[in-house]
Design a protein that fits this description.
By secondary structure, the chain is an all-alpha fold. It is built from 14 helices and 2 strands. 29% of the residues are buried.
């Protein structure tokens, strides 16, 4: 159809026209890319500024909350996960602080008495980690939102995905040069396990008479629920009931002390205070929750070991009587007297009176135990192995206050010792046979590794010393 110079000129014209269009499209695509890069960089810089400021603000809030409760970021992380927002966590921290103040302050009402939290020494969450975790993450510009940036003829070359991939790489380079992080997602340890304070705990300490009446009503309600519940739910309710009984005993003692204000306590009231004190000690140190050991009326039921427990705790309460009387004669506030002595029962340290004040000494050299929490029966069985202060021999931990050097070993903490401690805790606190056996197997495996020359019989004896049970009784070979 075409020939000669005309054809040659026509084709040359078409080629030049196409070349101009391609160059124009390339210039247009570069302008589009530049616009997207500018938007992405501006968004990145804005987000980085916003994020860093929020981190600083949240870090300040976290430190203030931790300071208010004299605790660490692990606790604040737990509360945050439970309450769901920073504002709700701050409000709850205020509630806890007010509850502590009403009960005599954080020394007499420590978080450990309000929150049932596990403790960890390794892998703790830092305040900065938590601040970054709860801050709204950086939201960089979504390059895909720009769509296909290729105009006209450029759509004949490559794919939309390839063009976006190249653009994303260029944007990432721009952000990196500007010092803007692409993501702000923070990887932090899992929250520690625990529970929030019982609602009734947050209203304790305002009035002893009201506390006593309220605890009685709550205990009646819990008794009905316990009778209807089963399994873990029943155990959880029983644990709360034990805490209610403890609070009720404290309130009852406060009322008795108020009736004797400014004078020595008469013999009848001392007898009542002692009985309630023994009930408190039993509940606090793992006896009161076991119906085979102890009942709510203050009576031990069972064999010789239970009688031995009673003798030890009875002597502990006898040692507190002079403290009660001296504090009363000095005119110290009755509520404070009972709050301090109740806390002394919990931490197993004898309170002292100096300069007209009653308190629990913080200096280790002044700390005298109420009783030996590591005490064993004549048969060698630990009498208070369910106490939170009890340290199994060989657990790698120093004995708690009240431990005699003959009944507990002080060993350097090691990973193996930590595993044994955790496994022993499981053996002693779970009712699930499978979990007991699994924990027992952990203990036995570590003991075999550490004592390879020991005979099977001696190994079994060592196992029983550390766990309080025989390996055969929980299915460990």
């Amino acid at each position: 159809m075409f020939s000669g110079n005309f054809a040659k000129g026509f084709l040359t014209g078409v080629a030049e026209s196409v070349d101009r269009e391609i160059k124009a499209d390339m210039d247009l695509m570069e302008r589009r890319k530049e616009k997207v890069r500018d938007i992405a960089l501006e968004r990145g810089l804005t987000e980085a500024t916003r994020y860093e400021q929020e981190v600083r603000d949240n870090l300040k809030e976290i430190k203030e909350m931790a300071g208010a409760l004299n605790t660490d970021a692990d606790t604040i992380q737990f509360l945050y996960e439970q309450k769901g927002s920073l504002e709700a966590t701050k409000a709850y921290v205020t509630q806890l602080k007010e509850a502590q103040a009403a009960m005599g302050g954080p020394t007499l009402a420590p978080l450990s008495s309000l929150l049932d939290l596990e403790q960890r020494t390794d892998g703790k969450t830092s305040a900065l980690q938590l601040a970054r975790y709860i801050t709204t993450p950086v939201k960089n510009y979504d390059i895909k939102a720009a769509g296909d940036i290729r105009p006209g003829f450029m759509k004949l070359f490559g794919t939309p995905q390839a063009a976006q991939t190249n653009l994303i790489a260029e944007v990432d380079r721009d952000l990196a040069i500007a010092g803007v992080q692409k993501t702000s997602l923070e990887d932090i340890p899992d929250p520690i396990k625990g529970r929030l304070a019982y609602d009734w705990q947050l209203s304790l300490g305002r009035n002893a008479a009201s506390d006593y009446a309220n605890m009685g009503a709550i205990l009646s309600q819990l008794t009905v629920k316990i009778g209807e519940a089963e399994g873990p739910q029943k155990e959880m309710l029983q644990k709360e009931a034990d805490a209610v009984k403890q609070a009720q005993q404290v309130a009852a003692n406060k009322l008795t002390l108020i009736d004797n204000r400014g004078q020595r306590i008469d013999r009848v009231d001392i007898k009542d205070i002692k009985a309630r004190g023994i009930t408190q000690l039993a509940n606090l140190h793992g006896i009161g929750s076991d119906p085979n050991h102890y009942n709510a009326g203050g009576t031990w039921i069972g064999g010789a070991e239970h009688a031995e427990q009673r003798v030890i705790l009875d002597a502990a309460e006898d040692s507190l009587v002079p403290i009660y009387n001296d504090a009363m004669e000095l005119g110290i506030d009755p509520s404070r007297i009972e709050s301090v002595i109740s806390n002394a029962r919990r931490v197993n340290v004898m309170p002292i009176i100096k300069n007209g004040e009653i308190f629990i000494p913080s200096e280790e050299s002044e700390q005298v135990p109420l009783f030996d929490v590591q005490a064993v029966s004549p048969k060698g069985k630990p009498l208070f192995s369910n106490s939170p202060l009890y340290k199994p021999p060989g657990s790698g931990l120093s004995p708690a206050p009240g431990a005699s050097s003959s009944s507990a070993s002080v060993l350097q903490q090691t990973p193996a010792a930590a595993k044994i401690q955790s496994a022993v805790s499981t053996i002693q606190n779970t009712n699930d046979p499978k979990n007991k056996r699994a924990a027992g197997n952990v203990v036995m495996r570590i003991l075999r590794q550490q004592n390879q020359a020991m005979s099977q019989a001696d190994l079994y004896k060592l196992f029983e010393q550390q766990t309080g049970v025989t390996p055969q009784s929980i299915g460990v070979q």
